[in-house]
Write the C-alpha cells for this entry.
Amino acid sequence: MSELERLKGGASAFFRWWMSQLAACLPDHLRRMARMEKAPWIIELNGTEMGIFHPAEQEDTQGDTKSIGYRVDLSREADRPSEPLRRLRDRDAEASRLVLRLPAKRVLRKVIKLPLATEENLREVLGFELDQHTPFRPEQVYSDFQILERDPKAQELSVHWVVAPRAYVNEQLDRLGAAGLFPDAIEPEGEAPASTINLLPLEQRRRGKPLLQRVNAILGGLFVLLLTAVVATPVIKKQGALTDRQAQVDVAKKEAEKASALRKEIERLTVAARFLEDKKSSSPSAVNVLNELTKLLPNDTWLYQLELNGTEVVIHGETSASSTIIGLIEASPLFEKVAFRSPVTQNRSTGGERFNLSAQVVVEKKS
C-alpha cells in the first residue's frame, strides 16, 4: 500500500466517522430519510433455516428502535416466498444493508503483533503468516483485519485478524443466492460495533449508485477544502514574515522526505535480514551433520537413508556391530538423545546388523 493510498484510506475512515457523529445527532427516522445511516438487516443461517432481524418502523418508550425477528425455512420458499422473505428481497437497498452473521464457532479470531514496517503490505504479510497461526492455507479461507494499535516506540502493530473457512462461507452465499439474497457484508457473531471487519470477498461487494458516489465525493471534497482553509488561515497571515526563509524550508523539506524514505527502507531491510538470520540460526546445517556422521561411523558401516527433519536426524543403515553405533554418535557434541527407533535385525546375506536410529542435532543459538 502506497503512502498516498494510506492517506486516502485514513481520510475516508475519518469522513465516515464524522458522518456517523452527525447522524447520531438526528432521530432514527430522519437518519433513514437522509440515508446517513443504513438500517441493518441481519440474517443468520442454520442449515436451511434462516433468521431475519431488522429494525421496526416504530420506536419504544425510551426512544430506541425495536428489532423484529422472523424464522424462515428456505427449503419451503422456492415456489411461494413467505412475507418476511418478500420484504427482505424488496427492501430499499440504498437505505439498508444486508449482513450475513456467522456463528462464533465457525470463525477464528486472533490478535497478533507484527513489525510496524509490515503495514505497507499487511494483507500480503498476513497471507504468509496464515499457516503459522491457523491450520489453513490462504486459498482455503476468507479473512479480514483491523489495526487496533500502532506502537512507534516498540515498532509494532497490534492487528485484530479474523479468518473463516472459504468452503463454509461459499456454502452460505450459495444458499442465499438461490433465495435471491446477496449480502453487503459478512461479519462474525459478537463483533464489536466499531469493527470494520467484513469477510465478504471484494469482488462480491455491492457498489453504491453513481449518484450517491458523486454526492459523497462532493461532500468529501468540500470537507477537505474546509479543513484546509481552517489550517491554512494562520499560515497565510504569517506569510509575509516567512517569505525570505521559504526557499530554505523547501530544501529542508526535500531532504527530510529523502531521509524519511531512507529510514523506512532501512527498517524494511532490517526486518527482512533479522528474519533470515533467525531462520538460519534455528536450523542445523545438513553439510555439518553429514560431515560429522562421516567422521564418526566405522568403515564397515554404510547408510541406506538419512533424513534431517528440523533438528531431528534419522539414520537407516547396516554395520557389523550396531551396539557401538549409539556410543560413537553420542560422543559427538553435535548430537544428543540418540536412540534406536526399531529393533536391530540381521541381514542373512551379508551377516551385518540393520539398524534404525534417531538423534537430536544441537543447534548453537547466536546471541
